[in-house]
Inverse folding.
């Protein structure tokens, strides 16, 4: 048996030696990935936290996205911008019609005429919680109002929404809710609340998926 | 050798130590071609049939080249199919030559001496087929120069495929050069120098084992595929290799014994049958171990086995294949385990045929394909090879058989002394 | 052993060195040798089947000037090296060649960029499971942006419709076609996660796929031999293979391309999501992020502590899929 064992031991040794030799030679060809002892990937990310230089490229807002205005009221977050609304509303300023307080406007209304805002049907919250005046107030119709009667610009609807939807607006300010426009590079511009949600009926309707059925290669053109 | 005269060959002015062997080599090539192109009617019929199948394979491959791999049954979910299955199986057959080499050169068992050249020829044919299956499987065969060390970029030692390329080619070189050296020495009526071929043969033993281990690791290294990501993969590959390879060799050796004057001793066959028996028994034990692990408490990682053995969500294309394979492997192992049946040539041959087929199915459809089913996100997309794939595969198998027949025929002719160098080219130091 | 690329390495991205041997790093010096060898092989390689036809066309006395130019360009393309190892001059030559070849084939001009990574940028992605409604606008935008093969309906993104109550992909549907969101269901998208420890690049025998310094896992479609080992190694079904010649209708072709991104592929090579490298390296978000109507997709620089993606990681309860594999995906999921 000894004569059998010896050559096999030799073979095993050669194998080991070859392995070491070959692995050693090949190491310089390895392109990436070295063993790293600095903990998890996330820990590594945090360790390197330091101000990041400008990436050398800027986000460009598409014309259809609108005009960016600074967001106010979130001191804990780095400055960011959202989309102005007042410049794209068809009948703004509202004072074109609303030249007197709401009660005066209602007094002018004749029974046989339809409501001027007949197309708006409030489907946001139950009647006992919300009416038109909850957001629009009864005074200056060019502005929104908070629950305490403070006036808010039409360009900052998030301040109104935040009264009930605080966690959503907090996520929005941080970046976990809503939609960033332009691109990932600075400056940060995010869609405003009413850019996606119709404030009078915020729920989304269901629709068909964008991709046509399987086997159908007729994707819509660009 | 040391007493060679300086110039013995009047024909060439080159140094004597090169001139005579070169002339002999030329003669050897002529003789070998002559030997390969002449034979009995059965021989010509056999070779013509293989050529026909090879031509069909070449045609099928040309359609695959022009259309793309879309002509195969593979898709993004089962991205390896029949080709890689055959590759995996053939690497095992190639590695099995070690079963003859080890006893001959390490244990100096004379019973294997005559069979060993045949075994090496089979290893060469199997490696060539394995390489052929990789070539037909890749999407860009013209770009294969990218994996050539030094010229391309060789991702070594990271990629197990790079390892496989190394071990396949080195194994091919060893198994071509050493038998060639031995045959050519015999052709020139010399005794080959053991100082050269014995270390090379020891190397080939090492390489045969690493060849199949590396191929197993190629699969076992993929954490993405729980069906393969399994420590038993390597040992199991070796066990099946030492079952299917020698089983095929037992059959082939008997054919050669019957067809030519090159008689293989029954003792050789008996010893190989013993190797097959033990390897088959180990294979069965390993299969039981795997099935126990998969089915005692099935987890998410058992889905592939679930699909393979029992079917999943109404899909069960592989179920009949795997049970057939397991059934015939167990049956053959039982036959071989009974001494009386193993010693009976008829039952031995039946068992060998069964084992070869059983492991061909088990290695391919039972190992490679279910690794992809269900796919990464649990969906079942089955795989059925197309006729193009089958014909290309048949073509490669025919090519391997063609190559093996030529190698074996020339080898046998030299060993029987039917072709020998002419005295003019025999050179100095003739020991015959 | 966990094998990660160190962030420290990522931080110290050097601008691409100017061509010239003196300033080359060892890899590029090695490349210099490889180019020489490759040229030698090119000279000797006339017997190669693919080369022979091209040569024939190149030196055919009856060929037009344009067909000769085309053949020469194709010849040069066949023997070009691995993109990762090219000098910036070689990269420029390579993309100009692609532009010229496309122009000669279709008569239309495209722009192929070879822009490198930006300094101190590592891209990361977050997916809000609560917000995804299964609209599939991302999938359509991805296919259009990245010039994916229309004939095989190739798509990098899969949207899985889960029944509420479990996250089990085996029970989810990825081929739904009905009005969405369906009652009682929620949606999870999967795509390439650009793992920080990618198993796919490790297995590639030719280093035809690798992770760029900005974290994007890319494929050199000209260097890929099509062995599909990376597809077997990917645990997330992120990779796609061109089983036949990919086709995109001329009028739908996106002409703004990147060598490592959405340029036209050939049959027999692997491709994948590149975080729209042709967009992201220019400051834009990937097409899927831009197309998502609900803002469920968030993209940004992981190295910037003020980025949205970092705010999500710090403030939301995030998870990743198959985290037990240690692949360190750079795509996180979270819920409101």
């Amino acid at each position: 048996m000894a004569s059998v064992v010896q050559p096999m031991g030799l073979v095993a040794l050669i194998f080991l030696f070859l392995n070491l030799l070959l692995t050693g030679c090949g190491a310089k060809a390895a392109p990436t990935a070295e063993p790293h002892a600095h903990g998890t990937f996330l820990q590594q990310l945090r360790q390197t936290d330091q101000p990041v230089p400008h990436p050398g490229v800027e986000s460009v807002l598409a014309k259809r996205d609108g005009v960016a205005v600074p967001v106010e009221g979130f001191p804990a977050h780095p400055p960011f911008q959202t989309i102005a609304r007042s410049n794209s509303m068809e009948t703004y300023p509202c004072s074109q019609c609303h030249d007197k307080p709401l009660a005066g406007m209602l007094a002018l209304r004749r029974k046989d005429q339809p409501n001027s805002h007949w197309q708006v049907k409030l489907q946001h919250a139950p009647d006992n919680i919300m009416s038109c005046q909850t957001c629009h107030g009864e005074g200056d119709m060019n502005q929104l109002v908070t629950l305490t009667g403070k006036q808010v610009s039409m360009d900052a609807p998030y301040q109104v929404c935040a009264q009930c939807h605080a966690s959503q607006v907090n996520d929005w300010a941080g970046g976990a809710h809503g939609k960033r426009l332009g691109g990932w590079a600075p400056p940060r511009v995010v869609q405003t609340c009413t850019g996606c949600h119709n404030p009078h009926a915020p729920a989304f309707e269901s629709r068909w998926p964008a991709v046509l059925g399987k086997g159908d290669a007729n994707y819509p053109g660009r | 050798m040391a007493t060679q005269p300086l110039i013995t060959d009047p024909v060439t002015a080159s140094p004597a130590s090169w001139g005579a062997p070169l002339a002999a080599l030329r003669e050897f090539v002529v003789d070998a071609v002559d030997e390969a192109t002449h034979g009995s009617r059965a021989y010509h019929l056999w070779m013509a049939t293989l050529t026909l199948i090879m031509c069909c394979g070449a045609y099928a491959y040309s359609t695959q080249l022009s259309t793309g791999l879309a002509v195969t049954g593979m898709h993004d979910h089962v991205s390896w199919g029949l080709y890689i299955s055959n590759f995996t199986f053939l690497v095992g057959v190639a590695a099995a030559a070690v079963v003859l080499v080890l006893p001959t050169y390490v244990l100096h068992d004379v019973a294997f001496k005559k069979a060993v050249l045949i075994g090496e020829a089979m290893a060469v044919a199997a490696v060539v087929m394995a390489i052929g299956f990789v070539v037909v499987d890749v999407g860009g065969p013209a770009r294969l120069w990218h994996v050539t060390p030094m010229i391309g970029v060789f991702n070594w030692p990271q990629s197990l495929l790079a390892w496989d390329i190394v071990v396949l080619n080195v194994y091919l070189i060893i198994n071509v050069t050493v038998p060639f050296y031995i045959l050519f020495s015999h052709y020139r009526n010399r005794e080959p120098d053991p100082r050269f071929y014995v270390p090379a043969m020891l190397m080939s033993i090492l390489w045969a084992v690493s060849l199949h281990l590396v191929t197993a690791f190629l699969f076992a290294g993929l954490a993405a595929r729980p069906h393969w990501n399994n420590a038993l993969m390597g040992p199991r590959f070796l066990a099946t290799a030492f079952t299917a390879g020698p089983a095929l060799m037992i059959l082939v050796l008997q054919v050669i014994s019957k067809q030519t004057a090159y008689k293989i001793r029954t003792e050789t066959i008996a010893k190989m049958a013993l190797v097959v028996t033990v390897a088959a028994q180990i294979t069965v034990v390993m299969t039981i171990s795997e099935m126990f692990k998969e089915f005692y408490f099935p987890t998410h990682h058992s889905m592939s086995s679930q699909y393979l053995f029992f079917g999943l969500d109404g899909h069960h294309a592989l179920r009949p294949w795997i049970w057939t394979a397991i059934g015939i492997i167990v049956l053959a192992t039982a036959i071989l385990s009974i001494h009386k049946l193993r010693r009976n040539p008829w039952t031995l041959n039946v068992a060998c045929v069964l084992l070869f087929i059983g492991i061909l199915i088990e290695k391919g459809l039972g190992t490679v394909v279910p690794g992809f089913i269900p796919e990464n996100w649990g969906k079942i997309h089955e795989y059925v090879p197309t006729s193009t794939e089958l014909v290309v595969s048949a073509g490669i198998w025919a090519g391997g058989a063609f190559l093996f027949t030529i190698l074996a025929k020339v080898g046998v002719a030299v060993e029987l002394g039917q072709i020998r160098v002419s005295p003019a080219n025999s050179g100095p130091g003739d020991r015959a | 052993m966990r094998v990660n690329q160190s962030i420290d390495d990522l931080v110290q991205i050097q601008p691409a060195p100017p061509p010239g041997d003196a300033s080359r790093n060892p890899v590029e010096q090695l490349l210099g040798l490889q180019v020489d060898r490759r040229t030698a092989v090119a000279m000797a390689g006339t017997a190669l089947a693919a080369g022979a036809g091209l040569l024939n066309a190149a030196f055919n006395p009856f060929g037009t000037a344009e067909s000769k130019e085309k053949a020469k360009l194709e010849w040069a393309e066949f023997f070009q090296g691995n993109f990762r190892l090219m000098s910036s001059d070689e990269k420029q030559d390579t993309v100009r060649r692609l532009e010229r070849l496309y122009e000669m084939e279709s008569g239309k001009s495209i722009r192929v960029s070879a822009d490198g990574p930006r300094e101190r940028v590592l891209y990361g992605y977050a997916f809000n499971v609560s917000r995804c409604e299964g609209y599939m606008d991302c999938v359509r935008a991805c296919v259009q942006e990245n010039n994916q093969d229309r004939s095989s309906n190739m798509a990098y993104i899969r949207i899985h419709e889960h029944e509420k109550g479990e996250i089990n992909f085996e029970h989810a549907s990825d081929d739904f076609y009905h009005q969405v969101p369906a009652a009682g269901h929620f949606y999870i998208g999967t795509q390439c996660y650009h793992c920080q420890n990618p198993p796919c690049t490790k297995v590639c025998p030719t280093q035809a796929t690798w992770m760029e310094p900005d974290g994007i896992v890319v494929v050199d479609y000209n260097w890929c031999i099509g062995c599909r080992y990376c597809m077997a190694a990917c645990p997330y079904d992120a990779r796609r293979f061109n089983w036949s010649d990919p086709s995109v209708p001329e009028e739908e072709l996106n002409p703004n391309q990147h060598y490592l991104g959405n340029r036209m592929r050939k049959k027999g090579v692997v491709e994948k999501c590149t975080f729209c490298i042709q967009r992201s390296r220019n400051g834009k978000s990937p097409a899927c992020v831009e197309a998502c109507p609900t803002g469920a997709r968030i993209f940004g620089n992981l190295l910037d502590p003020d980025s949205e993606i970092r705010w999500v990681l710090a403030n939301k309860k995030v998870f990743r899929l198959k985290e037990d594999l240690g692949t360190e995906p750079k795509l996180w999921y979270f819920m409101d």
Remarks:
- Chain B touches chain A at residues 106-107, 153-158, 202-203, 205-206, 210 (CB under 8 Å).
- Residues 129 and 397 of chain B are 7 Å apart (CA to CA).
- Residues 40-418 of chain B form a domain with the Formate dehydrogenase/DMSO reductase fold fold (CATH 1.20.1630.10).
